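== Sequence entry ==
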Amino acid sequence: MRTRPPPVPAAAHRRATATAAGAAPAPAPAAADDLVMRHNRSLAALLRAGRYGAARRLFDALPARSVVTWNSLLAGLARRPDARAAREFFDAMPVRDAVSWNTLLAAYSASPHPDHLAAARRLFDEMPQRDVVTWNTLLGAYARRGLMDEARRLFDEMPQRNAASWNTMVTGFFAAGQAGDVCSARALFNEMPDKDLVSWNTMISGYTQASDMKESEKLFWEMPDPDTVSWNLIIQGFMQKGEAEHARGFFDRMPERGTISWNTMISGYEKNGNYISSVKLFSKMLEVGEIPDRHTFSSVLAACASIPMLGLGAQIHQLVEKSFVPDTAISNALITMYSRCGALNDAEAIFKQMHTKKDLVSWNALIGCYEHHGRATKALQLFKEMRRAKVMPTHITFVSLLSACVNAGLVSEGRMVFDTMVHEYGIVARIEHYAALVNLIGRHGQLDDALEVINSMPMAPDRSVWGAFLGACTAKKNEPLAQMAAKELSTINPDSSAPYVLIHNLHAHEGKWGSAAVVREEMERQGIYKQPGYSWIDLEGKMHVFISGDTWHPNAQEIFSVLEGVDRTCRDWS
């Protein structure tokens, strides 16, 4: 279908017609040329700011335009998702140069529309002249879509290649993600006549993504001059594999570190569960004068939430407010941190301050906060507000809601939440939803219904489901069902002490000491031991850890004295 091109002023049309006919246009005075250049700069500024409407109005009002003017607006249109507007404008251009053709080719190549790759190829074939940028643009279009056979054929046809051509091919092979393609990427890299810094970093990044840190590290040491990006890639790769000490070794040897380097280490420690190291490195970052950014604060707040360390988390909150206005991601991290550190009021205050900046994570974070603190009614009320705000919940939302109902014993509400998830929102129930539902129903004494839920599950129940059912059976002292659940749980996880301990405690509670002893002997025969429980508290910036049966704490005598008093009070009340 032909489309009407945008209007071109008569003066511009006469100049274009004269030029196309071979007549030399009248020379413009220097002042006019200067005016066109100023207009071009204004047009470029509007396009950089994304003000396409204002740019188009300025373009239409211009008394004179150069090919640079046309190319500037074409480039702006080419950055938009739909390449059709760029094509219409291109067709209306009175004069086109290599930049014009390459700009439209780039628009087609970057477009996600399924037909635009073929349009890019047709345009490529129509081009009166092609330079290395032309070839690289189409090459990148094939490589980004994983069409490496087509990319290879085009690469082999290229009359001239530069480093970008080779790097595009190497990146494309790695992006395909198959072992054979990794080999192809390496073979091509070895053929490269001139490897630049991007070439080396592309290879290191590719091996890192493929979790081949042996080759990645080998290439790193072969590099003639690694830059900060090279070091960061290696550090990130080792952190992703859980080798934090190896990553730290590279970090400590870095000749120059940037914010990304610090963030990679701090985030890596946090994701690998080494929260103390994450916090300590953050402190060192501040000591050396490196300025943290939003990513730094998000990672260290997550570490504080996991330890948990309320004092440090609150200090970081103050740093955030002094540094910049907290965005949604930072606010969400603060809600989670305050929640896990027991500061429910602070978490609620952050949520209320967000106003219109709340996203799905914000709602889930506070619902999870209420669940964590046993405030099931508040969690359900917030879910109602979430629905009124037309925020679409996810499976995470319903895990928190179901868990809240379990903790509060709200059976009918929990069943309603499960039904809402499945029937109203069309969310397929996952194993964690079934585990929560089994726990909820079973602990209410409806063991047969809980077993029916297990038997109707579309997937095989895992240890969380059988563990929930076993806990409910022992709580309700149903030995036959408890034995059955314990057997299933031991089959799934033979090294777990949980089924043995629960059955042992069930026998002991009923005074069946012989049966309890048999369970204990079976544990010893299997070499299964119960890991001692532990807890911790952050008191005035110092972490106090308590392990079951441990008397090494300096205040152990006073602590056990208080615990005995609490135990006596509970027994008196019961």
Residues 534-573 form one domain. The first strand starts at residue 534 and ends at 539. Strands lie at 534-539, 542-547.
